[in-house]
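Methods — Computational structure assignment.
A single polypeptide chain was analysed. Its primary sequence is given first, followed by the predicted tertiary structure written as structure tokens.
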Amino acid sequence: MLASGDLQAHPGMLALARESRGMTQVDVAAAMTKAAPAGAAVVSQGYVSRAESGRLVVADDRLQLYATALGYPVDLLSLDPRVSGVGVGVGLIHHRKRASLSSSALRCIHAQLALVRLQVTGLVQAAAAAGVPHRFSRVLLDDFTTAKDAARQVRRAWGLPRGPVADVIAAIEEAGGLVVMRSLGSELLDAVSQWDDLRVPLVLVNDHAPGDRCRFSVAHELGHLVMHPAPGTSSEQEKQADAFAAEFLMPAADIRQAFADGVDLARLAELKRLWRVSMSALLRRALTLNAITEWQYRTVMVEMSALGYRTAEPVEVEPERPTRVPALVDTLLSERGLAIDEAAACARLLPEDFKRLYVAGDRSLSPEPLRR
């Protein structure tokens, strides 16, 4: 390993690290100026711009100052993100977001996904965890294979029984995927995912999402991972991922049977407890399957609106939590006896960030949550 004095920043990682913190180049320049010794020259936005474009070398004291401003270890900033396999452009990224999410907020979340990949890879390697061969396989859609077919194939391949999926996150982890919870700084995006066929599928989940919505969003991301190896028409892929999630969580045959005797609010709340998806999602699914009439659908929706259920439904669904990555951390800290700073170094994080993200459970990567 190179000594810190031999390191120099990689332009791509400087930009990626900055984006992950939700900072602008002006923010970084101000943070570097604040962290500099008294009497040092003011760092300009132009300096940061030239550093990120590779037009100047960042090393020695300036590299340490940069690392302090961004809150990352020096060695992280020296990595080439593409060689490390974590660049934002490495692999197709999927996300289920609302249209009002700003491009800057989305770049921040994509950068977080890239660095989470790096962190978890380091933890896996340090724990010498026997790689769980994942059981994800592509299901390519065509005139004869629909998103519904893909969902059924995944359920069969993973040995899921009929009826509700007990725990969507656990099912992904048991199939060899990685799931990490984060506070993504916005309520406009519930999950983001990536799989490039070379590495393990990864899903980054916003821990602010309610349990029922989170289950659907994670199933939606699973649909993307399985069905969409390449970019396509965004709206069409989103519809396909929604159709996958609906069939994965609410199989057609079961839902038709569940609504065989009609529907009212009491019955809908009972079904929500069983299927652990929102009442609205169940009602839409029943309508799509012609298990209820348009009149029944509208009648119940009017009742839900009158009671305020469109914004806050009754029956709380307990959020699902991943266990695979926490188990890796426990292996390092308890079984291997690593100190916090040693485990943090494996994840290319400072000790305080490592504790917050992987031990204490705060899980917010950005210094200040984004509200854009």
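Note: Residues 26 and 45 are 5 Å apart (CA to CA).
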